[in-house]
Give the backbone structure.
Amino acid sequence: MDPFGLGPSSSTFSRILQTGEPYLAKYFRILLEKPEVVEAKKRGLKIIVGGPGAWQLKLKPKFTEDHGIDCVIDGEAEKVVGEIVRRAIEGKSLPRFYEVSIHESPSVDEIPEIKNPSVNGLIEIGRGCCRGCAFCSVTLRPLRWYPYEKIEKELKVNTDAGLKYSVIHAEDVLLYGSRSVIPDRKKVLKLHKLCKRYVNQLSWSHTSMAAVATDPMLVEDVAEIILDENQEWWGAEVGIETGSPELVKKVMPAKARPFKPEQWPEVVKTAAGIMTDNNLVPACTLITGLPEETDEDVIKTIELMDDLKDFKSLIVPLFFVPLGRLKDEDWFTVEQMNDLQRELLIKCLRHDIKWAKVMIHSYFKGRWYSRISSFFYWLFVKIVEWKARGVYSAFMPKPISVERVEVKR
């Protein structure tokens, strides 16, 4: 949930491509302004809001009040939502903003399984992250991995509803079952064999460059399980964030583990090669405007982008949004971009447009609606390409105007 479009993706691209109010923000507002909702509020309806974007409502107290939102729960709500709903039913006062403490985080046994099929067949296999990046809120939560039995129950819910595809979700799928930054081969392989018994197509929500580079053979073994006559590739979101070892040291020192921060660019390039060899096609992120970022840091990231030009992937630049341990820092905006940051943005856009065109047919291959979907996807890419031309012209350095001076002889 991104109720005001303040998340990294929405805040970055709505400004760069000048698309206006982000769709998520627009439709969240429209939902609350529906006549049915307004009428129900008059009859005593209580509106309780949660989800990963709940923190944004704390920044918009007037919107919260004007739209009749009674309570916002920020964090993992399993252990607290029951009491809040009970108070709402009994007509008691509710906290306007409830921030779930780490002590209220649910254990694995306190997290219920899904009762109905999930969106895109998403199956959560764990929560939390062991890497501790300063800009990320997920690292503030304890690390928990779900047992196979719990995962299998959710797979059955989805397949019983006819879903033949799944996305397994964790902050780093390759670290499933591990208490360190070293993948547990046995557990990871057992997980994927279990999932492929139920679905034809399987992808990951997230993994890390370091985990991929740590055990290339594990990625190859996973690929042998996932890729078959029903599936030629799989995807994941992966954080590159920067090409600068110095910035890695300052903000995300565990990002490279078990390698050293100084090795980060090589870790990324090694992992990129492993992914390409095994048909893992990631959507990668970079962060622009991190606190303490210098021009030298941006130059290192530009150099890394040059090295990744043949890496089949999407590489998405995102403006820094103050979250996690950096929540008190200033936001980064498009107006603050310097020439080096603009150059990095343009490199990313060109990389993404190039590879998006290549991916169109493989993305929809084997689906009955592939022809029409491929056309609309192609049309979308062309629109983005057209929009990007405006970005190129706006961000490229302007030529210097030199007046012609006649010299008398």
